[in-house]
Inverse folding.
């Protein structure tokens, strides 16, 4: 099998937000801290973790909707951002993103907040076509809009309506049509089904898979529901308090996870069979997630980890490859059961 081509590569990404204070007392929210991963062309990388772990910030920083604090972002061999503080850096670099906006798109989490209530659906989808000058004339523009709506399961009549006339699932389809309108290569799906009913979630996830096949898309699929992510993803990364703690093939992570946090997430996935559900052991974590304003020293998971010891408080665990394509950050992988 030939080696797959990396489309997106993120190295040691950091995203800190100011949180008050001046000078030496200035405080920062460490939303994303030293995260590295890559996404191959045509694959789906899932990113999971509980609320506030930095998943959405990672996706938005990757697209430079937030300007990263540090690290390097490479897209299709081109460096989009380089903070200049990595050993292999040639100095700070941040390219103009407008040409890349066509290639890299995002589907936002909230279909109620991400659509302008004063614009028709046709104008919402057509706005990106106008910005990137993709239509030859008005007739061509209208044709492209109708085609995009058709691809996401809507019809031509919907183009003249307003967002408030649609259900949540339909609005999310409009958001997807807007992202597809510029024929992108890469889409960040930021919790695109979390605001939808369960029955609608399945339809939208299946639609994402169909569109990927039709258009050759590459996804970063962000969600907190591991059961949804494992269905759509080729590989899955698990985040905790701004750090990537485990990354592996979808099946490998589901059945052979090695990090104690990943184990607890997988144990929480609901099982349809009542007999199997009674036999499966739920791993309940103690305590609350610490604040990213003042994260624990060493391993960030140590305050809730049953295997934590003195070394965990003193050393940050290295994110290393434990088997082929399986990465994890833990000092006690040999003890995790």
């Amino acid at each position: 099998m030939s080696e797959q081509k990396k489309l997106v590569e993120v190295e040691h990404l950091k995203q800190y937000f100011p949180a008050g204070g001046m000078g030496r007392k200035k405080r920062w929210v460490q939303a994303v801290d030293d995260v590295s991963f890559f996404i191959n062309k045509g694959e789906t990388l899932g990113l999971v973790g509980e609320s506030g772990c930095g998943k959405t910030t990672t996706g938005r920083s990757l697209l430079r909707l937030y300007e990263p604090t540090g690290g390097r972002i490479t897209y299709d061999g081109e460096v989009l951002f380089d903070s200049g503080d990595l050993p292999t850096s040639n100095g700070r670099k941040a390219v103009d993103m407008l040409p890349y906006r066509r290639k890299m798109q995002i589907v936002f989490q909230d279909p109620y907040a991400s659509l302008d209530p004063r614009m028709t659906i046709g104008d919402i989808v057509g706005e990106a076509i106008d910005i990137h000058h993709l239509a030859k004339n008005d007739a061509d523009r209208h044709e492209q809009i109708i085609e995009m709506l058709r691809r996401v399961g809507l019809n031509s009549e919907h183009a003249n309506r307003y967002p408030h006339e649609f259900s949540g699932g339909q609005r999310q389809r409009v958001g997807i049509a807007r992202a597809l309108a510029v024929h992108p290569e890469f889409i960040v799906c930021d919790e695109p089904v979390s605001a939808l009913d369960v029955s609608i979630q399945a339809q939208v996830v299946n639609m994402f898979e169909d569109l990927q096949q039709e258009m050759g898309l590459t996804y970063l699929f962000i969600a907190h529901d591991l059961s949804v992510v494992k269905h759509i993803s080729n590989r899955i990364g698990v985040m905790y308090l701004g750090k990537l703690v485990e990354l592996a093939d979808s099946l490998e992570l589901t059945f052979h996870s090695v990090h104690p946090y990943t184990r607890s997430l997988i144990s929480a996935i609901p099982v349809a069979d009542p007999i199997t559900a009674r036999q499966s052991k739920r791993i309940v974590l103690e305590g609350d997630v610490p604040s990213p304003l003042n994260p624990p020293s060493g391993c960030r998971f140590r305050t809730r980890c049953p295997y934590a010891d003195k070394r965990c408080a003193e050393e940050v665990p290295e994110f290393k490859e434990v088997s082929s394509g399986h990465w994890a950050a833990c000092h006690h992988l040999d003890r995790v059961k």
Q: What stands out?
A: The mean pLDDT is 90. The longest helix spans residues 198-215.
